[in-house]
């Protein structure tokens, strides 16, 4: 048996959630949209292109770290299962799974993500490449309490790509605490986090010459047009990404070029004035102290902190410091 699925949310539930999130976000003084809605098929493909842009250093820096660190780490830990949050396209996953196969410990892989299409597609590829591995897809929102299938330990929980950076600190702590609550004493948590560095390097990564990031940003409006029947005119908005030095984070916005009114059935008419923005993403940058503090608040201890010589990106390794509260 190698095909199991742990999906819970139907399309209808997902649409209701979208409607609620959009209504709430666009009613705020600083209008905002949840970055998880970037990732329909087109958005996911655009993100894949972003990861190959010369300016977007994150993915390459993280992969390089994983390639050098994972074999030794997996050899030590000998994890039977890998639970991956926000599994996306699974290309980095293979670095971990290869090491698990090499260590002879690989039994189960549980990718958890919001979009079922991409998840199933990459699960199929992984089942083919790793015939001895049981791949159990889990559709879910990791801001909510995790419900995991029964899996063999020790388990490696991985949350890569600096997706953690999309969340305000309090929300990040909630996610990390959700993970911690699922961890047994032998389990380990691996987090990929983008590092603070010179502002020009960071800003360039979100303002690429080719304009792919701008397309990716605007794509969220396409998603709302399709899913909610909204009438956003993409040409009436401009991509903007700026680094907030005090809060150590990139903010992506869509600026309204003129005064305009957008209409979304079931939500209503939404006026935007010239220059007013919709904030579409936060991407926080960290250092060891910042991650250490998030871990502590979440009931995780920071056991290891690995950065490459280039200082671009970090891997944090942790364990649950309080012990599991919902697993045997
Ligand atoms: C996938 C959230 C890590 O914040 O760098 C890339 C998404 N946004 N370019 C990031 C993203 C704009 C990315 N994360």
Which terms would index this structure?
alpha/beta, 14 strands, 9 helices, 8-stranded mixed sheet, single chain, 4-stranded mixed sheet, binds N,N,N-trimethyl-histidine, 328 residues
Description of the structure:
The chain is an alpha/beta fold. Helix content is 37%, strand content 26%. It has 9 helices and 14 strands. Helix 2 runs antiparallel to helix 8 (212-228) and helix 6 packs across helix 9. It starts with a strand and ends in an 8-residue tail after the last strand. The structure holds N,N,N-trimethyl-histidine. N,N,N-trimethyl-histidine binds at residues 50, 58, 161-163, 165-166, 206, 213, 216, 281, 283.
Quick overview:
With 328 residues, the chain is of the alpha/beta class.
Question: How do the helices and strands line up, and which of them pair or pack?
Answer:
Layout: E1 3-5, H1 11-26, E2 31-32, H2 41-50, H3 58-77, E3 81-85, H4 91-103, E4 108-113, H5 116-129, E5 134-139, E6 155-159, H6 169-182, E7 188-194, H7 199-205, H8 212-228, E8 237-244, E9 249-256, E10 260-264, E11 268-272, E12 277-284, H9 288-298, E13 300-307, E14 313-320
Parallel strand pairs: 1-5, 2-12, 3-4, 3-6, 4-5, 6-7
Antiparallel strand pairs: 7-14, 8-9, 9-12, 10-11, 13-14
Bound molecules: N,N,N-trimethyl-histidine.
The site of N,N,N-trimethyl-histidine has 12 residues, from helix 8 and strand 12.
């Amino acid at each position: 048996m190698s095909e199991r699925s742990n999906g819970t949310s139907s399309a209808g539930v997902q649409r209701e959630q979208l409607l609620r999130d959009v209504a709430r976000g666009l009613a705020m003084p600083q209008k905002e949209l949840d970055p998880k809605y970037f990732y329909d098929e087109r958005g996911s493909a655009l993100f894949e292109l972003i990861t190959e842009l010369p300016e977007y250093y994150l993915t390459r820096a993280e992969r390089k770290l994983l390639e050098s660190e994972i074999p030794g780490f997996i050899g030590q830990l000998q994890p039977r299962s890998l639970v991956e949050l926000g599994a996306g396209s699974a290309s980095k996953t293979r670095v971990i799974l290869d090491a698990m196969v090499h260590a002879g410990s690989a039994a189960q892989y549980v990718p958890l993500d919001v979009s079922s299409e991409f998840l199933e597609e990459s699960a199929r590829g992984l089942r083919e490449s790793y015939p001895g591995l049981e791949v159990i897809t889990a559709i879910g929102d990791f801001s909510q309490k995790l419900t995991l299938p029964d899996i063999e330990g020790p388990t490696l929980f991985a949350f890569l790509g600096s997706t953690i950076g999309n969340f305000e600190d309090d929300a990040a702590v909630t996610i990390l605490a959700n993970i911690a609550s699922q961890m047994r004493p032998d389990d380990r948590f691996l987090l990929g986090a983008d590092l603070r560095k010179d502002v020009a390097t960071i800003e360039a990564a979100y303002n690429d010459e080719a304009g792919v990031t701008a397309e990716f940003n605007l794509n969220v409006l396409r998603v709302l047009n399709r899913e909610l029947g909204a009438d956003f005119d993409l040409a009436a908005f401009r991509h903007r990404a700026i680094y907030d030095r005090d809060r150590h984070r990139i903010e992506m916005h869509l600026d309204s070029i003129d005064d305009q009114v957008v209409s979304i059935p079931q939500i209503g008419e939404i006026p935007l004035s010239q220059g007013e923005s919709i904030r579409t993403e936060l991407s926080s940058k960290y250092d060891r102290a910042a991650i250490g503090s998030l871990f502590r608040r979440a009931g995780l201890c920071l056991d290891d902190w690995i950065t490459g010589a280039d200082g671009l990106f970090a891997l944090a390794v942790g364990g649950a410091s309080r012990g599991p509260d919902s697993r045997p």
